[in-house]
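Exam review. A common question shows you a sequence with its structure tokens and asks you to describe the fold in words. Practice with the pair below. Do the first one on your own.
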Amino acid sequence: MTVSIIYAMLALGGMGLLLGVGLGIAAIKFKVETDPRLPLVRDALPGANCGGCGFAGCDAFADAIIKGEAKPNGCPVGGNESARKIGEVMGISVEEQARKCAFIRCAGCESKSNFRYDYKGMTSCPSLMQLAGGGSKACVYGCLGGGTCLLQCKFGAISMVDGIAVIDNEKCTACGMCAAACPKSLIQLVPHDSKTRVACHSNDAGKATRVNCKVGCIGCKLCEKNCKFDAVHVKDFLATIDYEKCTQCGACAAKCPSKCIISV
């Protein structure tokens, strides 16, 4: 009995030794060389894994930078600080980019908007979009108030106030996840330093907008006529601001009769 046990132990030990040698050889033969810069680039990123760079996460983005498939300044969360560190690792100069933040182009809260019917039920934005008329709010372009953008934000930058989403400029990292989640494409990335913004996304004619919302753009063009810098234009009954030309003088906001142009 003792001899049998010894033989069994020797057999198992031999098999283990052979398997170990085989695994060692395989590890050497199939070893994948890793660029030593990869962990350094990864450490320069914030680790938010938000997808704002266009990749699955920080690891994928770092790998793309090493392979030349992504720009070092492509992380909106890390901003210029991360880009500078990555540039040092890669041995290249990286152009600084102006900080951005998300902005919800709707000020039609519950106290300022009209509703076609009263709805009680599921409140996610995709669910509300399936209701008659694309939701109970009279303005089909307005914020649904379901908070889908809030659930997507990893930085606590969005809150719901009086039935619409509101973004905290200082907490926002411009990752763009909220913009991608909004079924009405209401959320736009704008320069963080921009103080004058159009809080409306409606293309309805002025008369219809007045009926639907107290703070909707009526396409009157007073903003366009009073801008001395050619920064404001009205198309399809909606004012838009060219931030490259805008000087933040506030003349357009002062002349807007519906107060849909706001000073942040």
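Now try the second one, then compare your answer with the model answer below.
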Amino acid sequence: MVSSNIKKVRAEIESARAASGRKASPIRLVLVTKTVDENRVREAYDAGEREFGENRVQELIQKKQQFPPDVRWHLVGHLQTNKVKEVVGQVVLIHSVDSVHLAKEIEKVSAKLNVVADVLIQVNTSGEASKFGLKPEELEDAVGEMTRFAHLKIHGLMTIGPLTDDVKKIRASFTLLRELQKKMKTHYPDLDWSELSMGMSDDYRIAIDEGATILRLGRIVFGERK
């Protein structure tokens, strides 16, 4: 089931990309394995997938030990500062840097390990109190502070769309992230703003239309979570 779901999703991603008028620039698919058992994740691996995302640090570390080293693990969920030391050096990308405080801790741990942490800055573009992320108006100043960190490399922005069936609200959330990306490219042209991580199982087609470069899909591939 998992392998056939992947084929279907990849075809739909390409169809949505073509319909949006975007050039054939790559859209990365990160399969979110939160609560997904090893057998189903392995089916995705056997189908050729190599980019997996975890929400929880402990689950990420456990799953990483179960799979070959060619898997590219992403941390896509909220990261507490006391868990940073367990994540730095273990993932290819931290999607959820949602405060300068967290960025400082990533910098500190990365400096100790003499590595550079690749990150995305999470922005709360829906305005929902239940979601983590910088407020849009906080982004520019926060980036200014983060540019002082030699062991933290920004690659773009991330957001989570609002939990609603209102397509206009979902699209507005993703449009705002794209507009913020454009603004950051102008104000901080020396940084890498190439990535927009947005779009999950219910809204990824809208995200593609709005310029997503990374999709975080779980349920649509693995089925309903436990």
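Model answer, second protein: The mean pLDDT is 96. Strands lie at 28-32, 51-54, 72-75, 93-97, 117-122, 152-158, 195-197, 214-217. Full marks require stating both points clearly.
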